[in-house]
Design goal:
By secondary structure, the protein is of the alpha/beta class. Helices cover 34% and strands 13% of the residues. It folds into 2 domains: 113 residues, Aspartate Aminotransferase, domain 1, CATH 3.90.1150; 253 residues, Type I PLP-dependent aspartate aminotransferase-like (Major domain) (Aspartate Aminotransferase, domain 2), CATH 3.40.640.10. The longest helix has 19 residues. The chain binds pyridoxal-5'-phosphate.
Length: 379
């Protein structure tokens, strides 16, 4: 289903064309209002009851779980993708001679934890080179084998917008006994995902991009088979019986059930969680399938408009519907982004790619402005 432009739900001036959701999304007005109310709540702390520390986090777990087809028990609340990937890297077993498979030019938060874990275990990191035809799924499938302890991958490559077929990769991982750790920061909310179909071991996402949520909040899905692993922190709220504030010094060995033990300390964030909840409610109402289909139409139009300028896109079947990484012409243009920004047109550059990341606030006028500004600079 193609959604109508939703600009009225965002607070974006008419003369700003924000094609930079992959950097940071614009925030929904409803989410901003929820955040203001969340910050104000602490001015009157008597409005925050002990039970709220748990009810607010359970709501957040349930809302994110619904988005990925999991249950609230499988979700931990984390401050960043790095934190969730750290949990995954500490939990998944490695052995000398085993390898961790990563994509070339992967985002650093999904590289460094694996490099350290590999070094500590006498294992190695192996890089899948960027495929010339843009087909990351095939490139990974060609390499994946029983020597790989872990495949750490996204659904969409953060820099080139390449699409990875997670159902196919999940099945291939199961077939050879490789654990699958996903960083969905560049897709959750804009691409549908079902943990029942993909069966990852760990899945993490930051909230501030395609989930339209706040900075410094993320979600971690932990498959039930890893929920007994040691958490990074040993805070009070993750322990069994933490709801009984009067009895907190009756120290307990047990944890809260499921993935809750992996929660970051102070995860009952009364300012940020309401922002995430408002955004998750809107995304659920739109449905990620419809977000993806709608953004695919926007991006297909841009690909057609920009091709004559020498901006090359990967073929449609191997690129993500929501995020475009267009190969820039050979000559370097160090001032390309500032010149676009001067026109209030915002995109990113990652390597030799112009990264275009629209959301549902994009209008026909925005598309014309981006294409017109690029024509004036590159044409
Ligand atoms: C693929 C990917 N993962 C994670 C992040 C953010 O990581 P963190 O939450 O650790 O700051 C980004 C930010 O650009 C990203 O593109």
């Amino acid at each position: 289903m193609i959604l109508a432009p939703q600009r009225h739900l965002f607070d974006i001036p008419d003369d700003v064309a924000w094609f930079n959701t992959a950097y940071m999304s614009a925030q929904l007005k409803a989410a901003t209002a929820a955040g203001i109310e969340g910050v104000a709540r602490k001015a009157h702390p008597w409005r925050i009851a002990p039970g709220d520390f748990f009810s607010i986090t359970e709501q957040a777990r349930a809302a994110f779980a619904a988005l990925i087809g999991a249950t609230a028990d499988d979700i931990a609340i984390v401050p960043s993708a790095s934190y969730g990937l750290e949990v995954a890297a500490r939990s998944l077993p490695l052995a000398p001679g085993k390898r961790i498979l990563l994509l070339e030019q992967e985002f650093p938060s999904n590289v460094y934890p694996w490099r350290r874990a590999a070094a500590a275990a006498g294992a190695d990191v192996e890089i899948v080179p960027a495929p010339a035809d843009g087909d990351w799924t095939r490139a990974v499938l060609e390499r994946l084998g029983p020597g790989h302890a872990v495949l750490a991958a996204p659904n969409c490559h953060w820099a080139d917008g390449g699409l990875l077929d997670l159902v196919a990769l999940g099945a291939a991982c199961r077939a050879v006994g490789t654990a699958l750790a996903l960083d969905l920061t560049q897709s959750a909310g804009a691409l549908p995902i079902s943990v029942a179909e993909v069966a990852p071991d760990f899945l993490v996402t930051a909230c501030y991009k395609w989930l339209l949520g706040p900075y410094s909040l993320g979600f971690l899905y932990v498959a039930p088979r890893w929920q007994d692993c040691a958490p990074i922190e040993e805070g009070w709220a993750s322990r069994e019986g933490a709801e009984d504030f009067a009895g907190l010094t009756r120290y307990r060995d047990g944890y809260q059930p499921g993935a809750r033990r992996f929660d970051v300390g102070e995860r009952s964030n009364f300012a940020l969680i309401p922002v995430a909840l408002a955004a998750l409610a809107q995304i659920a109402a739109w449905r990620p399938e419809a977000v993806a289909e709608t953004l695919a139409v926007t991006n297909a139009r841009l690909v057609a408009e920009l091709a004559p300028l020498g901006l090359r896109a990967a073929p449609e079947h191997v690129r993500s519907p929501h995020l475009l990484g267009l190969v820039l012409p050979e000559r370097t243009l160090p001032d390309l982004l500032p010149r676009l920004a001067a026109e209030h047109v915002h995109v990113s550059q990652r390597g030799n790619r112009l990264r275009i990341a629209p959301h549902l606030h994009i209008t026909e006028a925005d598309i014309d402005r981006l294409a017109g500004a690029l024509r004036a600079i590159l044409g």
